[in-house]
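Whiteboard transcription, Tuesday session. T.W. wrote the structure tokens on the left side:
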């Protein structure tokens, strides 16, 4: 019998409601010790019905709350599950949880509620990971990608591929058992037609997920330039708030300032850097070194120059740092008379007057996100799932090169592909293959 586990399912803090859960066979026996309601008969308790009653800490202390019972297998975990909805507060929530432990429940380990859901077939591995991504989503695009995964689309497609592979493995077993029928080439043809379809599906998912890093982590943009060209003013303009200190004194920014904004659902991570120049100031030089490091770690660079001045040697030295980097040259202070020459990839703006800032945001976005993101398609933002998918693709390439090999070798590679696909959804058991193989032995054996 699975032990009864209890956990606090809402963040600890002050709020309207806190939820404490129990899951496991006989969790009703624990509930009988602590929850009492005039409308509740435990012998005839209604599943999915909200009961108002008292949670009893002792004879004198009671908390007015709600209780709902989910009967197995129709619950999140697939087991009997009870939720207490109590007043939101740190102490009262903790005390309800501790009382359940005193009455026989055990503390749930991190993720154990969802783990039980997975083990009881209520949740696939990819859907469980999608729920975590959904909770941790920091951008609209990341939320959309996780919701598509949580809907079960990936599970359906992977399961379909595994079903096709299972049928191929069964065909191979029958062919090996009955060599007199001489259908090896026919079976191979069927295998490679199906492998071609699987390759197409895997390639599509990998291609769709190429921009997944930007969906999950955002686009890293370093704002660089010599001192006093308006980098901090540009940061403030992009953010729409006064985040960085702006003065006419050179070297005001001594360290990197990291902020972000959202554009088209993508997080844009900005790093306002110290002005790069020759300096005898130790602190400023440390900031300059960090500026150079920010360039290395960025996905793209905004190179800011002053429109009212001709390019200096410092500007030219900074430009050399941009080799092999995606960059935009921002000609700032366009509200002044222009003296700087025409430059590569330039956009003329005025951070002071907020001129062309929206256009700059669009250019930042489109410089990295080359194709429109289709959120109707599966986009894997989970690195583990994407790596498993790439492993599957490599196995498919091995299969393509194994056409002249024996069916034994091909069978081994098909099983490897089946198991690798199963690592995405958690369906790595071999019983399905065995069952279908034996179902095909109806030829008389």
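and on the right, the sequence the group agreed on:
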């Amino acid at each position: 019998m699975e032990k009864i586990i209890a956990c606090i399912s809402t963040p600890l803090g002050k709020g309207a409601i806190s939820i404490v859960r129990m899951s496991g066979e006989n969790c009703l026996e624990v509930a009988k010790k602590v929850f009492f309601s005039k409308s509740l008969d435990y012998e005839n308790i209604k599943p999915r019905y909200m009961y108002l009653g008292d949670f009893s800490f002792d004879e004198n202390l009671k908390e007015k709350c709600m209780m709902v019972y989910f009967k197995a297998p129709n619950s999140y975990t697939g087991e009997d599950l009870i939720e207490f909805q109590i007043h939101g507060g740190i102490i009262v929530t903790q005390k309800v949880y501790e009382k359940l432990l005193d009455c026989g429940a055990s503390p749930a380990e991190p993720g154990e509620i969802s783990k039980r859901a997975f083990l009881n077939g209520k949740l696939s591995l990819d859907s469980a990971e999608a729920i975590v991504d959904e909770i941790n989503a920091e951008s609209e695009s990341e939320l959309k990608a996780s919701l598509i995964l949580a809907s079960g689309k990936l599970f359906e497609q992977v399961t379909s591929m595994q079903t096709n592979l299972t049928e191929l493995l069964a065909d191979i077993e029958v062919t090996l058992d009955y060599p007199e029928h001489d259908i090896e080439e026919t079976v191979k043809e069927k295998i490679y037609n199906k492998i071609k379809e699987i390759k197409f599906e895997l390639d599509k998912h990998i291609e769709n997920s190429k921009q997944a890093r930007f969906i999950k982590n955002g686009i890293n943009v370093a704002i660089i330039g010599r001192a006093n060209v308006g980098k901090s003013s540009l940061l403030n303009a992009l953010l729409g708030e006064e985040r960085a200190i702006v003065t006419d004194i050179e070297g005001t920014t001594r360290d990197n300032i990291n902020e972000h904004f959202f554009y088209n659902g993508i997080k844009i991570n900005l790093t306002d850097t110290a002005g790069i120049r020759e300096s005898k100031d130790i602190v400023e030089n440390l900031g300059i070194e960090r500026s150079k490091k920010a360039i290395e770690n960025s996905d793209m660079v905004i190179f800011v120059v002053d429109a009212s001045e001709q390019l200096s040697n410092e500007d030219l030295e900074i430009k050399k740092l941009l080799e092999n980097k995606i960059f935009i040259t921002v000609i700032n202070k366009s509200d002044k008379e222009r003296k700087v020459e025409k430059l590569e990839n330039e956009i003329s703006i005025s951070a002071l007057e907020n001129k062309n800032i929206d256009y700059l945001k669009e250019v930042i976005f489109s410089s990295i996100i080359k194709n429109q993101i289709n959120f109707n398609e599966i986009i894997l933002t989970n690195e583990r799932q994407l790596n498993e998918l790439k492993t599957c693709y490599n196995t498919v390439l091995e299969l393509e090169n194994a056409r002249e090999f024996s069916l034994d070798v091909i069978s081994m590679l098909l099983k490897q592909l089946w198991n690798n696909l199963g690592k995405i959804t958690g369906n790595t058991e071999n019983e399905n293959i065995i069952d279908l193989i034996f179902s095909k032995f109806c030829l008389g054996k």
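Someone added at the bottom: Residues 245-254, 280-284, 430-445 have pLDDT under 50 and may be disordered.
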